Amino acid sequence: MDHQTVIVLDFGGQYNQLIARRVRECGVYCEVRSCRTPLEEILAIKPAGIIFTGGPNSAYLDSSPTVSAEIFDAGIPILGICYGCQLMAHLLGGTVSPCDTSEYGKTVTYYDKSCTLFGAVDELPEKAISWMSHTDLVTALPEGFVNAAHTDCCPNAAFYNKERKLYAVQFHPEVNHTEHGIRMIDSFLKNVCGCTGDWTMENFARTAVNEIREKVGSGKVLLALSGGVDSSVCAALLSKAVGDRLTCIFVDHGFMRKNEGDEIERAFSGRELNFIRVNAKDIFLSKLNGVSDPETKRKTIGEEFIRVFEAEAKKLGKVDFLAQGTIYPDVIESGLGDSAVIKSHHNVGGLPDYVDFKEIIEPLRLLFKDEVRALGRELGLDDVLVDRQPFPGPGLAIRIIGEITEEKLDMLRDADLIFREEIAKAGLATKIHQYFAVLTNMRSVGVMGDGRTYDYTIALRGVTTTDFMTADFAQIPYEVLGRASERIVNEVKNVNRVVYDITTKPPATIEWE
Ligand code: XMP
Fold it and tell me: What's the gap in Å between 157 CA and the centre of ligand 1?
């Protein structure tokens, strides 16, 4: 291991992933571990520092999650955030009590800049906004600690013991609303923990390639390549490590966007790997003949995908490793830490039983999405692949309402491309997190030249979101929508009307099916 590690000890807070991301953004590698992890296991990692996260409990209750107080004597710098701050106070002899008035949201905070966390942040004024979310507070500090911040309601909004390198903040520095909060985390990492910021994707790529080589030996690796960011970066990394002992199977179900199948093929044809593209459009279309129910479409495509993949994989004989593009949020969300399990991710735990392989490898399982993209760039992948927006497995099949035909697929592909071109021209491509066209099943009356038309309606959808679990409709300027609409009705046959979807998620979903 040629980088320093910080442990984010998870007490079940809602921002735990965000803390880990912030630490990585500061160029420091970190891992999220459950607060139930035995102390010896944590010490064996030789962490440069530990961050206690927030959590929904009260530190003074016996039933609440806790740690062995010996952790404070290990000489490792610790930063407690919110619940972590209260737990530190409680375990070291301070007092934690319920608030008279809970503090929630943006709060005026007064900082003592002689504390390293704040003093090293030049741009931080003595009075600034922090993000608070707590119903308990520290009313008496443990012996040896000094106060470093307060608010009108919270006398001990930050405190520390410099000799023991123990720091605590009641507010959430990881949340963007805390002014200069990320710089405070950076100061803890660099000035208290002595981290050098040695976590770079160049560094990761080098280490990962060596680890993969060691693990795979002379074995063969198989990867299902969808062309999405994760599987593409996974392919590029594996190909660098094991060359043509990697086989990527790209099942082209015919529901990709315009030219996308060819782009994926082109991106990988120059690399040292076995790239197999299965053009299965006709099989998929025939299986979906007459199907209009969304769930049946998804199920049919999912089953057929496995069948086609399996048939192709069987031709390879036994493979040693099956690679998956699982990434860190999938791992955390599947309940690695103490946070509520948000969703069971399909990539974690559910091993396919249809391919004969010895072991699974997940070379990206410790990376966040932005790191995966950075790694992709490091490995020389094209921007088209690295910046690709999320795209559902069943592809355009769930963006055509009702029955799917080749004609409808062509119409949707053309409309979708026009929308994407206009978004790009307006410089909005990276500002809107997902945007696409949907072919509704509705036809309406229009007029073209001197004639009456009775044609399809295209719906455009654009959303902004941080996690895709909730989303807002994107406020795309009317001029941009207008240009896209004008081009779509002029350039795409059998479309005479364009509408823009202005629903949030919930109650709507991002996709229409
Ligand atoms: P919804 O429509 O549920 O979509 O709001 C949330 C996000 O998930 C994507 N999505 C999928 N991704 N397989 C995938 O890999 C699927 O079957 C699938 N369905 C939806 C969707 O594009 C959005 O980003």
Answer: 40
Q: What is the pLDDT of residues 128-186, one digit of tens each?
A: 999 999 999 999 999 999 999 999 999 999 999 999 999 999 999 999 899 999 999 99
Asked if 201-386 and 399-501 have one fold, the answer is no
CA dist., res. 481 & res. 423, Å (int): 9
What atom in ligand 1 is closest to the CA of residue 389?
Answer: 24
Q: What is the pLDDT of residue 318?
A: 85
456-505 pLDDT, tens digit per residue, is: 999 999 999 987 888 999 999 999 999 999 999 999 999 999 999 999 99
Instruction: Tell me the C-alpha distance between 463 and 227, whole Å.
Output: 22
Within 6 Å (CB) of ligand 1, which residues are found? 390, 392-394, 434, 468, 505, 509-511
User: CA 511 to CA 513: how far, in whole Å?
Assistant: 6
Cα 290 to ligand 1 centre (Å): 23
Residue extents of the structural domains in the chain: 5-192, 201-386, 399-501
**Does residue 153 have an active-site annotation?**
no
How much is the average pLDDT of 418-437?
A: 97
CATH, domain range 399-501: 3.30.300.10
Residue whose CA is at the smallest distance from ligand 1 atom 21 = 392
Query: Buried (b) or exposed (e) across 31-42, using 16+ Cβ within 10 A?
Result: bbbebebeeeeb
Strands (E), 191-233: 221-224
Which of 327, 511, 512, 513 for mutating ligand 1's site (highest number of atoms within 8 Å of CB)?
511
Domain 5-192 falls under CATH 3.40.50.880: yes
The predicted pLDDT at position 335 comes to 62
Number of H helices and E strands in the chain, helices first, is: 15, 18
Is 234 noted as a catalytic residue in this protein? no
Exactly one of 90, 134, 172, 253 is catalytic; which is it? 172
Residue 391 Cα to ligand 1 midpoint, Å, equals 7
Task: Between 335 and 513, name the one with better pLDDT.
Answer: 513
Pick from 73, 50, 32, 75: nearest CA to 189: 50
43 closest CA partner among 11, 71, 68: 71
pTM recorded for the entire structure: 0.84
- pLDDT tens digit sequence for 392-407: 999 999 999 999 999 9
Name the CATH architecture for the domain at 201-386: 3-Layer(aba) Sandwich (3.40)
CA gyration radius for the chain?
26
**CA 234 from centre of chain:** 15
